[in-house]
């Protein structure tokens, strides 16, 4: 699969390395341009540095930049029909939680990307978790669960497959509204690393 990752820091860099290591064709972009980014990704198998326009046409686009720069980072990008994974969290530069209004932080992102198939995932666990648990050989129910929310079920399932490729198990929580209520900072599933079977039970307790 061709995956674009916007953001090459702790989260974007970690996901790009993992995706590349698991056989995906990965292009990474960041605030800096391709030339400056190329030395950073030079040792990451399967990963190349790109410019923002290189993101268009990817099977999946992962957003891993600070949420507060979304408008600037996504300006002019036409990601209609693309599966877009929002891994961002709404923090200010001082790490205060930002009030994201009725649609939640991913809803705000979705409004910036008309026609994109937006999935909320990878935002509820620290980047380090994806390094530590990636070589997991446990049965899927015992692997670390990655909460995932989307209104578009097919897009959600595509991203769930990607999560599985990396050695984790996707645990659906519902649509983007459920993602707002359960996955954003200071909500019940935020920074809760649990085996998938336990995370699933937690989700059922919360929504039933
Ligand atoms: N770190 C975690 O454990 C973690 C866990 C879950 C979710 N998240 C979320 O993931 C996102 C990234 O966090 P992080 O810790 O990886 O931050 P980070 O280490 O500071 O990296 C941020 C990345 O975003 C890029 N960036 C900044 N402005 C941009 C723009 N206008 N256009 C494109 N790229 C831009 C930066 O580019 P340069 O490299 O050129 O500066 C950098 O590569 C945040 O929304 C965060 O809440 C992080």
Protein described:
The protein has 208 residues and is an alpha/beta fold. The protein has a single domain (2-207), classed as 3-Layer(aba) Sandwich (Rossmann fold), CATH 3.40.50.720. Helices cover 35% and strands 18% of the residues. The protein contains eight helices and eight strands. It has helices spanning 10-21, 34-41, 70-74, 104-112, 127-132, 153-165, 176-183, 196-207, and strands at 2-6, 25-29, 47-49, 60-63, 83-86, 117-121, 145-150, 169-174. An eight-stranded mixed beta sheet has the order 3-2-1-4-5-6-7-8, with helices on both faces. Helix 6 links the parallel strand 7 and strand 8. Helix 4 packs across helix 7. The chain is globular. The chain starts with a strand and ends with a helix. NADP nicotinamide-adenine-dinucleotide phosphate binds next to helix 1 and helix 3.
**In angstroms, what separates the terminal alpha carbons?**
35 Å
Describe the global form.
globular
- Count up the helices: 8
CATH topology: Rossmann fold
- The second-level CATH architecture is 3-Layer(aba) Sandwich
Average pLDDT score? 96
Unreliable runs, pLDDT <50, ≥5 residues?
Answer: none
Structural class: alpha/beta
Determine the CATH superfamily. NAD(P)-binding Rossmann-like Domain
Helix content: 25-40%
Strand content: 15-25%
- For this structure, the quaternary state is single chain
Q: What is the rounded Rg?
A: 16 Å
Domains, number: 1
The CATH class: Alpha Beta
Strand runs, count: 8
Q: How is the main sheet built?
A: 8 strands, mixed
Q: Helix and strand succession? A: EHEHEEHEHEHEHEHH
């Amino acid at each position: 699969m061709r995956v674009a990752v916007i953001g090459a820091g702790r989260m974007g860099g970690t996901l790009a390395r993992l995706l590349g290591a698991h056989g995906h064709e990965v292009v990474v972009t960041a605030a800096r341009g391709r030339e400056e980014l190329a030395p950073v990704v030079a040792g990451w198998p399967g990963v190349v540095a790109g410019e923002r326009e290189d993101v268009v046409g990817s099977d999946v686009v992962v957003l891993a930049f600070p949420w507060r720069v979304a408008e600037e980072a996504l300006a002019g990008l036409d990601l209609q029909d693309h599966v877009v994974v929002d891994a961002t969290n709404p923090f200010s530069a001082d790490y205060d939680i930002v009030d994201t209004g009725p649609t939640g932080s991913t809803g705000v992102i979705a409004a910036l990307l008309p026609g994109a198939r937006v999935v909320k995932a990878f935002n509820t666990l620290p980047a380090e978790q994806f390094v530590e648990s990636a070589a997991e050989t446990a049965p899927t129910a015992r692997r670390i669960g990655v909460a995932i929310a989307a209104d578009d079920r097919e897009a959600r399932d595509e991203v769930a497959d990607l999560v599985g490729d990396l050695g984790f198990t996707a645990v659906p929580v519902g649509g983007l509204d459920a993602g707002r209520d359960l996955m954003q900072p200071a909500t019940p599933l935020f920074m809760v690393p649990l085996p998938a079977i336990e995370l699933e039970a937690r989700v059922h307790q919360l929504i039933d």
